Task: structure prediction
Amino acid sequence: MLPDAASKPLGIFGGTFDPVHFGHLRLAEEAADLFGLQGVRWIPAGRPALRDTPRLGPRQRLDMVRLAIAGNPRFELDPAEVDTPGTSYTVPTLERLRQPDACGAERPLVLLLGNDAFASLAGWRRWRSLFELAHVAVAHRPGYPVDPERLPPELAAAFRRRLCPDPGQLASAPAGRVISFAMTPLDISATRIRALLAKGASPRYLMPDSVIAHIREHRFYTEN
Ligand code: ATP
Result:
C-alpha cells in the first residue's frame, strides 16, 4: 500500500542561504523525487553556530528563500529559527518538529545536507542525537569527496553503521539511517555569488532571477 501524504517522509533543509542559489534548489528538488518526500521544509538558520556572522540578517535571508521557493508546491518555509533569539542549532529544531502538534514521533524526517556540511557534523552541538530524530541524506557536492576515511572516526563509524543503500527504506522508520546520494553536480556556492556581486559581475543562471532582482533592489552584497 502506498503511504498517505501525512505519513510520507518530510525533507528538512537548513542552511544559511546567504544567498540561496540553484545548488540548494536542485538538492531539495532531487531529494524530493529520490526519497518520495511529501515535501521539503526549508529552515533558514537565524544565527548559525559554526561560521562567521552571515553577510545578511536572518529576515533578509528568509525573504530571499521565500522568493526562491515561491510556486513550488513541494516546498515550504519554516521561519522558526529566524524568529528564535540566540544561536540556531539543528537538534532543538528537530525536537520541535517531533512535538505532537508538529510532525509527531512517527513521521519519517529526512535531514538534507551537502557533503561538506556532513563532514563537519561531529562539530555540531549534540550531533549524535540527530540520528534519533531524523534520517540524514547527504548530497554529493563538487569539490567535497564522499570518503568515510576522511571523516572523524566516530562520525565515520556512525556513517558506516547507519548507511542504507535503498532510498525507499527511509519511509519505513522515523529516523536513524544515513544515505548518500548523487545529484546534478552544480559547483555553485553562496561565497562565490557574494564575490561576483561585490565586483559588479552577474550571478545570472546561478540563482533565480527573482532573487537577483531583490538583491539589486536592496543593494545587497555590494561590498566584499
Ligand atoms: P557559503 O558559500 O556561504 O558557505 P553555501 O553555498 O555552502 O554557502 P549554505 O547555505 O551554507 O550554502 O548551504 C546549505 C546546505 O546546502 C548545506 O548542507 C550545503 O552543503 C548545501 N549546498 C550548498 N550548495 C550546494 C551545492 N552547490 N551542491 C550541493 N549541496 C550544496
